[in-house]
Amino acid sequence: MSEQQLEALLFPARVSRGSDCRPLPDWDKVDIELQRKGVTLRLLWEEYRTVHPGGLGYSQFCKCFDDFKQTLDPRMHQHHKAGDKAFVDYAGPALPLTDRMTGEIHAAQIFVATPCT
């Protein structure tokens, strides 16, 4: 065996990341879908993997999406004096809450407030 053949066996050429031919999702569409209520990155990844079983894994999907988001223009940076304001909103869909006495089911909202720091 020649020296070159031995070297090729011991030190095979590295495959560059650029040769990765896995299909990538349309990140603009992923970004738009994430704005819909109840849609998560995990759900979109699962849909992507249904169509492309050999596609990106979840962590790589998230990293690629984060890289995409970094290329976008910043939305709006707000500067606040610490403790001067608080942001409030309702989190997620209403949850069923059952009255133990009557068995009646009521919709309960989760209210979230966070102070600006």
What class would the helix/strand composition place it in?
alpha+beta
Strands in their spatial order, largest beta sheet? 1-4
Question: What fraction of the residues are assigned to beta strands by DSSP?
Answer: 15-25%
Number of helices: 4
Helix content: 25-40%
Q: How many distinct folded domains? A: 2
Quick one: overall form? elongated
Instruction: Give the total of beta strands.
Output: 4
N-C termini distance: 68 Å
Order of helices and strands: HHHHEEEE
Q: What is the averaged pLDDT score?
A: 86
Q: How many strands, which pairing sense, and closed or not: the largest β-sheet? A: 2 strands, antiparallel
Rg result: 24 Å
Low-confidence stretches: none
What report would you give on this structure?
It is elongated, with a radius of gyration of 24 Å. The chain has 2 domains: 19-71, no CATH class; 86-115, no CATH class. The model has no long low-confidence stretch (mean pLDDT 86). The chain has 117 residues and is α+β, with helices and mostly antiparallel strands. 35% of the residues lie in helices and 15% in strands.
Spell out the blueprint of helices and strands:
Elements: H1 3-10, H2 27-34, H3 41-51, H4 58-71, E1 86-90, E2 95-98, E3 105-108, E4 111-115
Antiparallel strand pairs: 1-4, 2-3
